Amino acid sequence: MVGDSLSAEYGLTRGAGWVALLEQKLKREKIDATIVNASISGETTSGGRARLPALLTAHKPDVVVIELGANDGLRGLPVEAAATNLRQMITLSQQQRAKVMLIGMRMPPNYGRAYTERFFGMFSALSKEFKAPLVPFMLEGVADKPALFQADRLHPSAQAHPIILNNIWPTFSTLIQQR
Length: 179
Prior knowledge:
- The chain contains six helices and four strands.
- The chain has helices at 18-28, 45-59, 70-74, 79-95, 113-130, 161-178, and strands at residues 2-3, 63-67, 99-103, 134-135.
- The protein has a four-stranded parallel β-sheet, with helices on both faces.
């Protein structure tokens, strides 16, 4: 798992984030899998791209989950640059024979319609290009509920993480059982 603060348990008690909840669910479902959460708060697609080769070498994963792009978008970085970084991460993972799953994100409307549509569309375009499963929007059912966010209004609270896991589980469970 390569992600940003949304997967790195930013502002949460250790073990309360969706990745930790995913590990618990795998155990309950008796699915033999080890999760390596290499997520870092503040991570961008370029940072993930730079770190990925060492992670692939160290862990030799069967599945790589990429949850990156939100910080690129919040900084208003060019969508094309984020897409290039994600494309390189997918390619490198697939060259190492890992299956890749993408987790998409949406930008708030104040970034303008053209940017937000290009940004959101980037994930489905990459999913199609690489035949990589996609969770279109990890914050579905969370983003429109201010009560599910921490005081910074950017990071989901612990109460939101089970919803996030429910958004991710159907795609992830299918992929993990195909490995």
